[in-house]
Fold these 2 entries.
Entry 1:
Amino acid sequence: MKVILLKDIAKIGHKYEVKNVAEGYAQNFLFPRGLAKMATSSAINELEVLKRQHEEERKIREDLLLKNLGDVESLIIETEEKANDQGHLFAGINALEIAEIIKEKSRLDIPVQCIELEKPIKEIGEHKIPLKIQDKKAEFTLVVKAKV
């Protein structure tokens, strides 16, 4: 059964992709949770329009971010996460969470695709986070503190 994914789903695909999945999986898991909808011809046409709009918005955000690249490099963002006594975080911080932290703390909307994190951050301390916006590279500092 062909479905249109409404959210990113691990091992299946990304938002707005058309995927072929088992009928039972679609009807019993994806549809009830609002993760996908059936891929009819009208839904696929809507999807193309949505994709174009989404891509245009992303391009505008990246262009704006590129203009403010100097501000991003001087950015120091602090966050508190739960950690043990040795300074290891109970849950790693991935690129998606970093994008949300940046948006919350500094009001900058950095697309997750621009954050080039090799692996999740798993320790408290100061971390340099690399960004790649179009062909330009930058990095900012993320300070992770232990939650008391």
Note: The longest helix spans residues 41-67.
Entry 2:
Amino acid sequence: MPSPSGPAPSGRLPACPDEGAADAGPSTGVARPDGYRAVFAVPEFRYVFAAHLLSSLGVVVCEIALSVLVFRLTASPLLSALTFALGLLPYVVGGTLLSAVADRYPARRVLVGCDLLCALAAAGMVAPGTPVAVLLVLRCVLAAIAPVFAGTRAATLGEILGEGELFVMGRSVIRIVNQSAQLAGFAAGGLLLTVVSPAAVLALTAGAFLGSALLLRLGTLARPARDGIGGPARGALLAASLGGARWLLTDRRVRALLLLTWLPPAFVVIPEALLVPYAGLLGTGPAGMGLLMCSMPIGAVLAESLVGAFLGPRARTRLTFPMGVFAVLPSLGFAAQPSLGWTLLLLVLTGTGISYNFGVDRWFVAAVPDALLGRAMTVMQAGRMTVMGLAMGLAGVAAEYAPLRVVMPAAGVLGAVCVLAVIFEVRRTAPGTDRTSPGPVRGPAGPVTRTEK
């Protein structure tokens, strides 16, 4: 697999190299800057970063504008809220039935095609007289495309950056963009809607997707498909997608890592899903509600940035299990029905748990075969968003029958138990006998164990 500066040596880059070697990036014989600087030193990644920033802002602004547009057309709070729910649930369709697209076709073609389809869907929302039902269908189209795009981009990062330390840092940058886009997108969307119509904002969204497509087309290299393009009888797309998902879920190691990726966010999102009624209990106004909604992304951006910038690869990997559990623990504080200030602190602390992903990314990419990497990343993303959507819905149902001071801390208790159980399974499936080793290295014939000195 190519690295940023040319063909990589046989096999993948070490899953967790020694501290000094890891900080130097892929072994190319040339010294590289450390951390995030090393990632942005790769020109191709800068294009991917800019494209992701554009499309992420476009998605957030689109959600706000579409929700406002639907409410103006129907005066229905239910349909307006449904536009946000439809941004999560169709992930399972695209992630399960279309995941093979990420491996079967050249990555640049898939990424550009996804952006163009999203631009067309956003443009369709702008058309005068578009029925509300069509608007919601187009929102589903955007959501179904999202996991295919995200999975393809994640797998492509391995080709752009190599799959060692630079890959982990590149994934970190993507997560920072995701969280920052929520903050900036909500602010920008709200400001734009004070001066222009929702249709005009949706037109800007279509333009953002077109800009992303152009950046990816001009700034990334044309690479062949991962699963042997042109090979004989590769089978139907649906069968390949389902077969890949089946393999991922039946492999014990990969399944454990998928669960470790999915479960903490599922429980973390429960307090966030109940913030509106909780803000009502506190009697906060719109300003307080805005602070509550921003707190968790702020914690996530701070933790991701600080851990990525100031800790070495080994220290980041060792944080995986503690931070995975810690992410769900601040929910216990809601049992005391804290005031606004303490609630903000609990949410910021919850957001810091995102830093557990550094280790999971490293282990996951080492455990999955090259030919399935795109499908694996697509299933990972689709599963995460789907379980988050289900968790939000179940939290709402629970809050109908129990007080918030019970539901929110109960999520923390149940989350801690589930995450600890998954951590136990991840440790049991770790290759080799050295449980402190962060993961395997994939050699030419498959996974092998690397024992650190």
Note: DSSP finds 20 helices and four strands in the chain.
